[in-house]
Design a protein that fits this description.
Helices cover 17% and strands 32% of the residues. The protein has helices at residues 34-41, 72-83, 156-163, 208-215, and strands spanning 4-8, 12-17, 63-69, 88-96, 103-107, 110-112, 120-122, 130-138, 142-149, 185-193, 199-203. Strands 1, 2, 3, 4, 5, 8, 9, 10 and 11 form a 9-stranded mixed sheet that branches. It has a two-stranded antiparallel sheet with strand order 6-7.
């Protein structure tokens, strides 16, 4: 199980991560990770102490785009863009129910669950979390949409939609039983302005397993 290279030059590597591949080591996980793959692909990376330049992460069962810096200057530049929320990410999401209005902003602070430490939940005293969404299509029992997380909290999209009563299809933690092959979350597009002032935009088409599921519903 390996990522697909979407783009690579002397400064940047853009990867399309398949579902099922863990981004980096964590509690309870053994086996190969995306960081292991990056280490082999960039054995002389000057960013060995920064997970070989990996700038953000996706859940194991979420597919799509990830940015990897190949130089320290690129790493620091992009890290600041993330910190200032100047990198735009678009996810393709399928949720249960008919979400309305068709366009909106979800602003619900999140914190780690008090007893289930791998989960997150809405909390008035939690960290600010904001998600913009735009409905793409309604189905009889589902809503297909684009989601744009303005902040990058862990499980943000999953918790936000679940807390509104529209859980992500296939989400075994915050959702409900259904026939989806996995959680319907795909990091579809990412864009930013690089150090030279050039707008960079990268796109990954909806993963095949999710596309097949989508075309099978009414």
């Amino acid at each position: 199980m390996e990522p697909k290279i979407i783009f690579e030059d002397t400064n940047l590597l853009v990867l399309d991560k398949p579902a099922g591949l863990v981004v980096h080591e964590g509690a309870g996980h053994t086996g190969p990770t995306l960081v292991d793959w990056i280490k082999k692909h960039l054995p002389r990376s000057p960013l060995a102490q920064e997970r070989f330049g990996l700038l953000h992460r996706l859940d194991k069962d979420t597919s799509g785009l990830l940015l990897v810096a190949k130089t320290k200057s690129t790493f620091e530049y992009l890290k600041q863009l993330f910190k200032k929320h100047e990198i735009t990410k678009e996810y393709l999401v399928l949720v249960h129910g008919k979400l309305s209005p068709e366009k909106g902003s979800i602003q619900i602070p999140l914190s780690r669950h008090i007893s289930k430490r791998t989960r997150f939940e809405p909390a008035s005293g939690g960290r600010l979390a904001e998600t913009i969404y735009q409905v793409k299509k309604y189905y009889s029992h589902y809503t297909y949409l684009s989601a744009y997380p303005k902040t990058g909290r862990t499980h943000q999209l999953r918790v936000h939609f679940s807390s509104l009563g529209f859980p992500v299809v296939g989400d075994k933690t915050y959702g409900k039983p259904d026939s989806a092959p996995r959680q319907f979350l795909h990091a579809h597009q990412i864009s930013f302005t690089d150090k030279d002032g050039k707008i960079r935009k990268f796109t990954s088409p909806l993963a095949q397993d999710l596309d097949k599921f989508l075309h099978g519903i009414r």
